[in-house]
Write a structure and sequence with these properties.
alpha/beta; Dehydroquinate synthase-like, alpha domain; six-stranded parallel sheet; two-stranded antiparallel sheet; 15 helices; globular
Length: 382
């Protein structure tokens, strides 16, 4: 295990009827910019609960933060926040709303264009307004981490940057009961693959991190069919919500190497084709596992044995079975796992290879996934 420094300052308020607690968590006198997505919170009761909790506060509403939040939308929110002298941001929605609100919270204090912040990739917390969230869609873990991913649709680009941790986040599993089934499937996949990016590297780094990671993977596999059968199963949705948060709040990555090549390739599929983020990962991961099997082989075998009870004497055949079983799980969620099934083809592969080559990027725990390897990964899942 390597040296590390760990701190996660976000306060999690979890459970039924907890949205009302925000009134006690936001300091009095704050001028709050409340950010929302497309409006589903008005039909599921979340909006009314938030507004009731904000009684007595000065607040301003901004609506329309889309999935894979676009810089043009966030610029409008920043302008509103500056114009109203807001000094606190409350994000109400899923990971995209929270991601976008992280940029908004930084952008309100920034004199230049907010896209500059994204391209700098590291905007420290003391240059950002305090941010809190009410989570309505488990997936990204943005409610308890400092990361965010922002799109520039006009340029067909999508990049991550790092801001501050939310001061607090409210997680009420009942807010998930009316989510579209596809969003839930993508959220489950996103949770699963967030863990895989931190777990599927090399063996022997940390038995504790391995077991924590495997516990989340096994939980997602266990609850997925329960949720598909009954999305209003409170216990299953509560486990889903907490799994998504724990998958990317730093708890399973302490002192171990991480990959993230699948995510970087997946971001490009979203930028080029508008595919939901979690869905793109289910397309790419099987290809990453196969093409990188020399580097990752021992960990793939450990994963297969512990998660799927798959073992065998022939290394290649066993790895193939493990990858196939992983892909079967993604398809059981209702997701299509091939590029060709999702409107992408050779042209997409060519463009992603070109982008990676132009940026001279290298991903993976060993920085061995360059433009040519990314091409092989995508060709494997064509």
């Amino acid at each position: 295990m390597t040296n590390f420094t760990f701190k996660n300052p976000t306060k999690i308020i979890f459970g039924k009827n907890t949205i009302s607690s925000i009134s006690a968590e936001i300091p009095s006198g704050k001028r709050i910019l409340v950010t929302f997505g497309g409006g589903s919170v008005k039909s599921n009761g979340v909006y009314d609960q938030v507004i009731s909790a904000l009684k007595g506060f000065t607040y301003f509403e901004f609506w329309g933060i889309e999935a894979n939040p676009d810089i043009s939308t966030l610029r409008k929110a920043i302008s509103l926040g500056k114009g109203k002298n807001c000094d606190f941001v409350l994000a109400v929605g899923g990971g995209s709303v929270i991601d976008g609100s992280k940029l908004i919270a930084s952008g309100i204090l920034y004199d230049g264009d907010a896209w500059d912040i994204v391209m700098k990739r590291d905007w420290t917390a003391n240059k950002s307004l305090p941010l809190a969230s009410v989570l309505t869609l488990p997936a990204t873990g943005s409610e308890m981490n400092a990361g965010a991913v922002i799109s520039y649709r006009e340029k067909k680009e999508k990049f991550a940057f790092y801001s501050q941790y939310p001061v607090f986040s409210v997680l009420d599993p009942e807010t998930t009961f009316t989510l579209p089934a596809h969003q839930v499937a993508c959220g489950l996949a996103d949770t699963f693959i967030h863990v895989m990016e931190q777990y599927l590297t090399t063996t022997g780094q940390s038995p504790l991190m391995d077991r924590w990671a495997e516990g989340i993977l096994q939980t997602v596999i266990e609850i997925a069919p329960q949720i598909k059968h009954n999305q209003q199963n409170y216990d299953a949705m509560a486990s889903f919500m907490l799994s998504a948060t724990m998958a990317l709040n730093g708890f399973v990555s302490m002192g171990v190497s991480q990959d993230w090549a699948t995510h970087m390739i997946g971001h490009e599929l979203t930028a080029l084709h508008g595919l939901t983020h979690g869905h793109t990962l289910t397309i790419v991961l099987p290809g990453t596992m196969w093409i990188m099997r020399e580097e990752k082989g021992d960990k793939i075998l450990q994963y297969g044995k512990r998660i799927w009870n798959i073992e065998g004497e022939n290394r290649e055949e066993t790895i193939r079975k493990i990858i196939d079983r992983t892909e079967e799980f993604f398809r059981s969620l209702g997701l299509k796992t091939k590029l060709s099934e999702n409107g992408a083809g050779i042209e997409t592969i060519n463009e992603i290879e070109r982008r990676f080559a132009d940026r001279k990027v290298k991903f993976g725990e060993n920085r061995s996934v360059d433009s040519s390897v990314a091409r092989k990964i995508l060709e494997q899942v064509l």
